[in-house]
Amino acid sequence: MKSVLRCIVLSAVSAWMLFSALDFVFSADGLKDYCIVNNSYFPYMVIELGIVVLFLLVGAIWSNLVIPISVMIVFSYVSILFLPIVFAILYVLITIIVGESINKRAIKLCDKGNLEVDFLIGAMVLTIVYAVMSMFSIGGLKNLRIVFAFCAALAICDNFGLVKEKLNKVGKILLQMQCTRNRYFVFSLMVIPIIIQIGRLNSSIDYDSAWYGLRAPYILDNISGIYDKIPFTAVVYTYSKGFETYSLPLSSTDCYAFVPALNVIFTVMIIRTVYSFCKEFVSEKKSLFAAIMVSIVPGIMNMSTTAKSDTMTLMIQLFLMYFFVLYLSSSDFRFLGMTFAAYIYAQTLKPTSAVFSTLILLSVFYCLLLDKKNRVRINNIGIVSILLALTDLVFIWARTYILTGVPETQVWGGIFRKIGFLDKYPFSVIGISSQPLSSIFSISQLKILLLNLYDFLIDPRTESAMIGHIHVAWGSTFITGIIIVLIPCIVYHLFSARKRQLKERFIICVFILQLCAFIGIIMLRNWLDGNYFMLLYACAIIAAVVVIRVEKKKERQVFGFWFGCFYLCNILLLLITNWSMSIRFTEPDFLNKGYYNHLAEFEQFMRDSYKCDRLYSEMASDIHNKVFAVGDHISGARIPCVVEGDLDIGAYGNRQLATNGEFHKYIEFGEFDYIFVFSNRLSYEDAWYDSIIELFDARMISSVEEENGNILLRVGEADTEQSELLKSEFVRSIGKDT
Length: 738
Fold this sequence. Notes:
By secondary structure, the chain is mainly alpha-helical.
């Protein structure tokens, strides 16, 4: 009777969640018209994916894992992504080998969690090396690549025997990858979502990636490294740039795909870590099931095609949790040291990780207090990893401090300012919360909270600003259903008479705190990105696998049926949602160079759309040219030089710089070379018109060039008469456009 009731409840919740997800897609005001019906690329996506699935199904005859791997390789090449994927894999492997060298000599952790430990150590070491080079003004991109190759050679020589042994082992595994048909299908189910991301990566350059994620060659390698003076005031440029610094050698001005390809590899590592993590609690079969569930969450998978730090942040947070669970299993302080190292390293990545990572750390301390049988035994070897992470943090935060006067500008920024740190000109503080604390617990605000929770968890179609990014970085109703079923199970779990393992309590504590943070942030923010909660999505899946016991055959069948339905539904969601809302795969090319030239594509776009070949060539002639662009924000950000846009000041930075006669002071401070105005952007009524006129009055414009409505002003000294003539020429140019 109890089993039947559980099946009925599970079916009811699953049916409601599945209906909500399908309604979100196929209803009149859903995604159907924009993403499916009126999108000419969608049928081709379905055909390409269908061909991939067909190959995978045919491969089931032999049930050899080489087949899905080969399908991924061929699909990467056809999608013009072969070289970015190969370089990303090699970069991660070299990072692991570098970490293995340090681990072998200083930390000596060579059992469970070896790959995660080695990667984290390697990433910290390489970031520190790049930062030290920048301190000595030799941190240019070319020098970083040379030093990376040198570090790789040293690490391989140091581990030559071990590397040779592992290569032989990999070779044997590739030759003997025969498996059961069930295992083959499980592996294929995880491959399909990854192939979707590979197919769209070249054609889905999103707003944020183009704005700041892909600008590392300009904002982190301006002349000689990450500590160079840049005039940018937008808060995204003052974030802790741990991910961007680590991935800097992969940055390219021609092809944008190398850094996002690294995120694809990190996504694979996330799936692997979830599998390894769950194996500490449940059987291998259930652990594989958890890995499949993670692979179909849009909020996690869609981030793999961006150049943002979110994916690496989630990976490090999962490492943090995994290391602590290994500590609880082994009582080895070295794993506890790696736990703290992962927490510290996370502070160099996405700013919001300070909130979510700290909640994990609170769970760690809670469990340490409950751990009666094992006393923490500090040893020098365990301290090494913590010191390494602290060194990395100091170098990354030093960049923000040099630029802004505050080591961290967002979550920890308030604390630093209270103890005496002051913001430097021209930077300004942007608050995290847009809600006054006094109004958060009012009746009206609580009603809004409940509506927002419904929108976020059930139906992300609202017109409200808060849900702006949810449909592209959504956990989907699959996660909502898991949370609804999980909460009563956790309550029963906590109050049942059965004695629970401390590891299980740790997972439950982390999940509850992440859920509370989710609710709290919705109360504090009006604009919310679904990707804030990637850790919540992963923790919900892990907690569900650990806590929810599906023992009876009937329950497994019901659960399997609903999971199959959600798998197909979420594959559809993955096809029609991504950060750029580009619903297409890269057009197949069966004879290509292995990488896509995005810069050439953008130059063609500027020729076709803005017809400003001459002005564009002048700005792009030197990647160190500093340009202030007014108009098309993302096109401006993609010009291959040091570009700041009007929105960087007006919406995301210090708004005061464009008012009260301050603009000319800022242009002089930033040592800008050009002011570029896109065609049909300015009018006499526009606020930026007055700001640019201010530059003429300050005699700071030495020439005015116009091409098809686009205007390029060269910054330089001019006498009064020349300035008046140039101002008249500029005013006439603006008048032609209006």
